[in-house]
Amino acid sequence: MTQTIKDKVRTFVIENFLFGDTAYELADDASLIENDIIDSTGVLELVAFIEDDFGIAMADADIVPQNLDSLARISAFIEAKGAVPVSA
Amino acid sequence: MCGFGGYLGSIRDGKPLLERMTAAIGHRGPDEHGIFTTPGAGLGHVRLSIVGLGDGQQPMSDSSGELTVAFNGEIFNYVELRDELRAKGRRLRTSSDTEVILHLYKEMGEECLSLLNGDFAFAIWDARRHRMVLARDRMGVRPLFHTMKGGTFYFASEVKALLEIPGLSAEIDPIALDQIFTLWAPIAPRTPFRGIHELEPGHLMVAHQSGITTRPYWQLDYPDRDQRSAYTNENQAAEELRALLTEATRIRMRADVPVGAYLSGGLDSSIISALAAGMTSQGLRTFSVTFDTAEHDESAFQEAMAAALGTEHRAVACRAGDIARDFPDVVRFTEKPIIRTAPAPLYKLSDLVRETGLKVVLTGEGADEVFAGYDIFKEARVRRFCGRQPGSRVRPHLFRKLYPYLPGLQQQSAEYVAAFFGAGDVALDDPLFSHRPRFKGTAATKMFFSADLRAELKGYDAAEELVGRLPTAFGRWHPLHQAQYLESRFLLPGYILSSQGDRMAMAHGIEGRFPFLDHRLVEFAAKLPPEMKLKGLVEKHILREATKDLLPPAIGKRTKQPYRAPDSHSFSGAGELDYVRSAMGEEAIAAGGLFNAKAVTKLYEKCQSRPASGFRDNAAFVGVLSTQLWLQTFTGNSLRKAEAA
């Protein structure tokens, strides 16, 4: 299941922030901020994606880099919330 | 205010070439034009008549015929200089500032530049020494470009005049493109046109048969940070500032035609309008842009200030679709790819001024560089403050205070805000510390560069080149002064004064004048202690103190709202014109060869479906579109190829 979540998150990040650039070597633990993949508006897009696609209501306290600043962290956060992809 | 072009070298058909060159920049001088040729050199000029209406025709030769000048701009202290020349027994035939340059050059040679207070670019053909002398004003208000072709040296006020040279074709300089997509502007003397350069602000160039030499005649300088400031008394400093600014405005009111003013509703243009209104007996005319988007519109402040001053005020509305409609023309005049649409409303504004019959406007431009008004100065201070306690959850909240107009930022946690601004960055000795987040954030747009362009750039780093261009003394300056230097020396001439300034005004034959950029005021402000300029997080403190009697409190105490315009949003809905679809289409992008066509297609779709995109997406969209238009306009490339495909 984790693999499915991570794949879905990776696809979203590549499509939405890397504009389909599959050649970009995006490591699971690479910081999305430090690598200039995401900006302040991008965080809000990411939150909307998680809420819409995984059915998670994110509290303000959840929206921190510790939860969202890499593919691995996002996937772990979603998994910890016990969510599965809405479309899965 | 005018435009000129010329050459040094033996060419055939010099006169018809000068006719074509001046025709290409005819918008800069709709009133008159003139050509001067002599064996081995030529000058052409188009004139916007402002001073010496009846006797200031150019190119102008001295009585001996040995010196001939083509001049764009104004020497604001020409009255005093003319009086001094007359007192020395010189006979001046005209009432123009142009003749003053000729006399001073004849007397002092290049050293005369130190006496000129003005916004100017000029070329003097010196037949005595068979050489061409070119110079540009200290801050870079007026443009001057040059190139070599077939052993002949050519120069002009705009690049489009140089493109008339036989055999010279426009080709984009990939390094310049990288610089624009990182620093917002090329690093002079580089321009987006490969092989075409600009004379840097405050520089002098002497071209003769044996070669070309270039040197600065003025440089922006700040005191060492440990040096005790000459200004310790704030009241005294405010008084001196007021006197200098009043004088700078007074001499910029000199013209044989009426002078108006831009009024944005902010502190700086309000101050200039207030000073100017007190100096004219005919009533000041003021001009503004309004927006139908609340986050950009300042009309309430504009109207309040116009009412307080009793000016005859006109505003032009920049509505959805206007920016997209004007954007191809805007790029044709900026002659540079741009990553913001902000020049477009100013293009519309100068059109309004022209409609009213005025030729000259004062603006408040330059105050933010000179007196530390930009948010980036405060941001750097907060980043240093956060850097002292990297784990603090409280300190990063200050960033939100800096950017109340960025809703995306207001909704973020302290941790995210800190991360976005690199608040934990401990590289406090980085010479680009103040600007690093901006450069890094902007450079993220380079993800849209094509594989071919990346390969050609070979890992080039624009920010590092900028570091290499900093003066030796830079490291000894206070961090605020370092940040001010970066803004004043690079972004000001490279973008603000050119793409937003001279080019948008001159597109409609309007001359902008900038009292805050009077070099005496610039030199004075550079010597002020940093805390007089940025007091805590209050920008332009000393300027507010010096002018508080001029403005209603609502204006005088206003926090700076940066001038912005809708970006990618302008090109969706009513602004989604055919040319946008064509320029951003996969075929056109592929034909241009500079960007990744698939990625740009996704960007285009994203910006169309969700207009509230973040900075990177907006900057990338505008940057790619303007580059595509640049290719189409100047190289005939890209879109034409796509259409033919």
TrEMBL record, chain A:
Record key words, sorted: Plasmid
Listed InterPro entries: ACP-like_sf, PP-bd_ACP
The keyword Manganese is annotated on this UniProt entry: no
Segments forming domain Carrier: 3-82
Protein name in the entry: Carrier domain-containing protein
Organism: Sinorhizobium medicae (strain WSM419)
